[in-house]
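Fold it.
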Amino acid sequence: MKIDWAALGSVFLIAIVAVGVITSVFAFGVRGLAARTTAREAGTSGASGLTTAVICFAICVSVVGYGIYLIVAG
């Protein structure tokens, strides 16, 4: 049995980067919801925070859905 260490390292590096990116996008989404809540308490609409949250969570759902598609289709 031969292990292709270059391919394993490549997969590991891409996985680490993907985890960092998706975690950051999710954190921005949570921050957007918090900004909306703060704005609503201050008496403004908070639409920008909600828009940020929706976009970030949509990106997260898309990335996770694509990953599941790759696993199931492969």
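The chain has one domain: 5-73.
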